[in-house]
Amino acid sequence: MIRVELSKMLRSRRTWSTILLIDALPTLVAVLLAVTDLGPRPGQGPAFLSAVLTDGTLYPLAALGIVLPLFLPIAVAITAGEAIAGEAQQGTLRYLLVRPGGRTRLLVAKLVSVLAFVVLAVLVVAVTAYVLGITLLGSQSLTTGATSVSGSSLSTTELVARTGLALAYAMLCMLGVAAIALFLSTAAESPLGAALGTMAIFIASTLLLTLEASDAVRPYLPTRYWLAFVDLFRDPILWRDLVRGSLLQVVYVGVFLAAAWANFATKDVSD
Amino acid sequence: MTSLRRWCLVALGVILVVAGPLGVRSWPAGENDVGATDLLAQVRAAAEQPYSGYVETQGALQLPVADRFTDVGALLGEQTRLRVWWRDRDSWRVDRLLASGEVDLVHDRQFTTEYDYQDAEATTSRDPGIRLPRTADLLPPALARRLLEDVADRATRVPARRVAGVSAPGLRLEPGSDRSSIDHVDLWADPVSGVPLRLEVYAVGASVPGFTTEFLDFSADEPARSRVTFTPTGSTEQSFDDVLDIADAANQYAPLLPPDTVAGLPRTAASDGAVGVYGRGLTQLVSIPLRGREASPLRAQLRRTLGVVVTDTGTVVSVGPLGLMLTGEDGDGGWLVAGSVTAQTLSDAALDLLSGTVVVDEGQDR
Amino acid sequence: MIRTQSLTKHYGRIRAVDDVSLDVHEGDVYGFLGANGSGKTTTVRMLLGLVLATSGTIEVMGSAMPRHTLDVLPQVGSMVEGPAAYPHLSGRANLSLFDAMGRGSKRAGRAGRVDDVLDRVGLGGVDRRPVRAYSLGMRQRLGLANALLRSPRLLVLDEPTNGLDPQGIRDIRALLLDLNAAGTTVFVSSHLLTEIEQMCTRVGILDRGRLVLQDHLDQLQRPTGRVLLRTPDPERAASLLVGRDVEVHADHLLVDAPDAAVLNARLVAAGVRVDELTPERHTLESVVLAASTASSDRMERA
């Protein structure tokens, strides 16, 4: 069943056009940076963007910082929102359920396919960003070594390992989005409703983060630790927020997957 | 399984997941029967204790300052996240963590290097005797050391509190002088090493602290030497700065010598130039001579602040436990007097400064 | 094959299905007849475990549903409320996907199975165009092909001839009868009397959520005991049959007679010319109308 869902996801034209769209923004930014050579003012703009002008190998991280706050979650919310509600709207849900693999397994298969989408999207962004960074912005670190956020030097192995960890962390954060969208997908009538509901939750969370009055709930907001991947590039790595962020996402995934199961396992399918 | 039963199961799981961390956090701190005097002695004895950890400071002091004072305003008015490795007074590193970068101070004997990731710059300067507050001054141990200078301040015990995972016995310090604008400072220290872990500063009449600094992760082990050395990489621009900030500049170059006592507070040994530091412990003030182009924007800013009082001598503003006064009129230079003292003390100090300052011959080498 | 007991489904305060006890035997072609909105589709969904009954029990192939969904459904082929497919994929790709889903699906022979069912429903020559470009009839055939994958023992089809032209309807009917002859039990729900009449051996009639009748089609269409008589001499015939219950219509007579042959002999003996003489049978329509109340989508003013 998981294989079927994966093949459905990979064969869907929407998957690839979405990934292409996500990829377009960092590509545009890279071209503009290379042409104008104007970085953002320090303290403004996404993480690492000011650093990439001298070192293109950091561009995958800058690209991650560009797509992580908005583009990627939207894409994930749409894809995961499709999962159940989309099948229901298309009428195929009932045919999935009468070829029984079990409803819980269907949910898991859907989550795995969304996860695969996330991995694919993040990797495509990272690889194109790396190629663009090297070709358009130059690759100083290959000769002198990259500079960590704390000013010490990072060897190429360290840089690669930490970039890999950052990508994995971003994927985990997106899995949290996917779980929420999947739950809403079992509850909403239309896939668009599920996607919009998920986006509403994340916009609300982002808004609350900026509010001092929401101090008490801040550590529980789903977007609270999203940008903590920057901490991987401090020296030594600051694990505090990363660990909390990972645990928080795991809890979100667990809770919303359980809620999706509770809602869907005996839901009347009458579309 | 019915739908209801499944939802109950999910609800139970959510409750467990939410209640777990909340329960751990609200676990009461174990009380410690150490006396106030003993605890105070222990904290004082820990002045040279090495430590490392993660600190968050939260200031509610919205200082009406800009330009050259912005950094100080941000330090006292916002949340700051710091990482610290402290071997001893001469060798430490404090990182200020920003969302997309950091600004680090690395101290090696008399030199401090400030590294700014986003500018890719490392600026080294000789540590002056007089300077504006910086991140390293706001660490609980550093702030406590400054506040504890005044032996006359009275100390009593307050209940222990869980800080950075340890049950830390608490101490309340009250100023010995009625010139102080600080009502009290609560301090919680590590029961083993005696290093202060959390400090809360309360202004007179305030029910919530105006400034809080606390360790969220703490270790009393000595950090490795490699942690407190800064080795710039090829892409970092390095420079050396003769003058650290406006206070240092005024202290070095203003041809003035302030009086030995203002508002009844004696000048400390640390101030040997144009900038005066008076009083000690919870009752301290600093006076900085400003030129017209530095004083005017600041004066304009102070005037716009809520609760500003404009007297014959100058412009006075109180922000929580901090008071600021700038003497002189529009276009003039003047004395910036600031400290944890009452508005009356500021005015008295300003008058003493205006009458008692000696102008040094510019040609004379100090 | 299918047995339900007091099957009931409430949607809020509305009783969509009320106390339905179906009994479908192995080898039946069972016609499940009812007006639109009478609860047919809800019942079919309950049989397949898509909708959960409020009360009552369901047994399919001897196992309780929906508890044993995973064991039962692989042996059931179904089409519920119209076909559905992934519009961006071809019919063949769709069938491969559906075949790969669920338990115990083997990769080996998948292409063969898919080609086989496509042949059976008359889509053997279909090209690679996506389902999006299919006509309504082609989609219907594809849905049927999907139901036939894995050679089910029981077919549950909801309105299988929807959207088909007369030729298509005949094809499908022939296919279903073929399958039935080979041992497949077929459960067809429809609101079309003729469709049921031409295909089914047993009939259940649903009216406003209640099963009002369930019997063999032969039994329902049994003779009424009257004979339809068409003759150029209606007056003579009528006078000859005095004493019997005779209904005179414009072009025929309805005569109460247990045996048409005896009646014929008598008429011919009396010199009455006979154009046509047929024993009258109950029509399914009359049975349905007698058993049902007014059409359920009609909203009369109170």
The name of the CATH topology of the largest domain in chain C is Rossmann fold
Query: Could you tell me the number of beta strands of chain A?
Result: 2
Shape, principal axes of CA atoms of chain C? elongated
- Mean pLDDT across all residues of chain A, rounded? 87
Major β-sheet strand ordering of chain A: 1-2
- What fraction, in percent, of the residue positions of chain C are helical? 25-40%
- Overall geometry of chain A comes to globular
Instruction: Give the beta-strand count of chain C.
Output: 15
Descriptive account of the structure:
The complex is a heterotrimer of chains A (271), B (366) and C (302). With 271 residues, chain A is an all-alpha fold. Chain A is built from 10 helices and 2 strands; from the N terminus they run αααααααββααα. In chain A, strands 1-2 form a two-stranded antiparallel sheet. The longest helix of chain A has 35 residues. Chain B has 366 residues and is α+β, with helices and mostly antiparallel strands. Chain B folds into 2 domains: 206 residues, Lipoprotein localisation LolA/LolB/LppX (outer membrane lipoprotein receptor (LolB), chain A, Clam), CATH 2.50.20.10; 114 residues, Phosphorylase Kinase, domain 1 (2-Layer Sandwich). Helices cover 23% and strands 37% of the residues of chain B. Chain C is α/β, with parallel strands linked by helices. Chain C has 2 domains: 219 residues, Rossmann fold (3-Layer(aba) Sandwich); 58 residues, YebC, transcriptional regulation domain (Alpha-Beta Plaits), CATH 3.30.70. Chain C is built from 11 helices and 15 strands. Chain C has a 6-stranded mixed beta sheet, with helices on both faces. In chain C, strands 1, 2, 3, 5 and 6 form a 5-stranded antiparallel beta sheet that branches. Chain C has a 4-stranded antiparallel beta sheet with strand order 13-14-12-15, with no helix packed on it. The radius of gyration of chain C is 24 Å and the shape is elongated.
